[in-house]
């Protein structure tokens, strides 16, 4: 999958055996992923586990549209906080909810 404007790819391997869908978005183990608003193209390749027969390929496109949030500097649908450390360096923190290990999904 590729975000059209930025060209940023997101790929999944070994993810889909027995699954009814392919995950898209922030995964609990990877909070640094940014799913930007905008157009995406995708390609899904299915390879037979037993090696018999051809691989199947499907392609398509979709668009992610979220309501604009105040101070959303990276266009992922949540506000950002800009801070400066004691050395003067600027930092941007995404304020999306990040559940702790004890929180329910």
What can you see in these coordinates?
- The chain is an all-beta fold.
- It has strands at residues 2-3, 38-46, 56-64, 80-84, 90-94.
- A three-stranded antiparallel sheet has the order 1-2-3, with no helix packed on it. A two-stranded antiparallel ribbon has the order 4-5.
- Strand 4 and strand 5 form a beta hairpin.
Short synopsis of the structure:
By secondary structure, the chain is mainly β. Helices cover 0% and strands 29% of the residues. The protein has no helices and five strands.
Topology:
Layout: E1 2-3, E2 38-46, E3 56-64, E4 80-84, E5 90-94
Antiparallel strand pairs: 1-2, 2-3, 4-5
Order of helices and strands: EEEEE
Q: Assign an overall shape.
A: elongated
Count up the helices.
0
Q: What is the gyration radius calculated from CA atoms?
A: 18 Å
What structural category arises from helix and sheet content? mainly beta
Percent strand equals 25-35%
The total count of strands amounts to 5
Give the termini distance in whole angstroms: 25 Å
Give the helix proportion (percent range).
Answer: under 10%
**Low-confidence region ranges:** none
The major sheet is characterized as: 3 strands, antiparallel
Descriptive key words:
single chain; 105 residues; mainly beta; 3-stranded antiparallel sheet; two-stranded antiparallel sheet
């Amino acid at each position: 999958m590729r975000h059209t404007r930025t060209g940023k790819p997101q790929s999944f391997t070994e993810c889909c055996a027995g699954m009814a869908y392919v995950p898209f978005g922030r995964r609990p183990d990877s909070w640094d992923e940014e799913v930007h608003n905008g157009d995406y193209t995708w390609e899904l390749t299915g390879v037979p586990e037993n090696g018999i027969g051809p691989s199947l390929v499907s392609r398509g496109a979709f668009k992610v549209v979220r309501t604009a949030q105040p101070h959303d500097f990276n266009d992922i649908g949540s506000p950002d906080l800009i801070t400066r450390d004691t050395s003067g360096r600027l930092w941007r923190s995404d304020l999306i909810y990040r559940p702790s290990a004890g929180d329910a999904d």
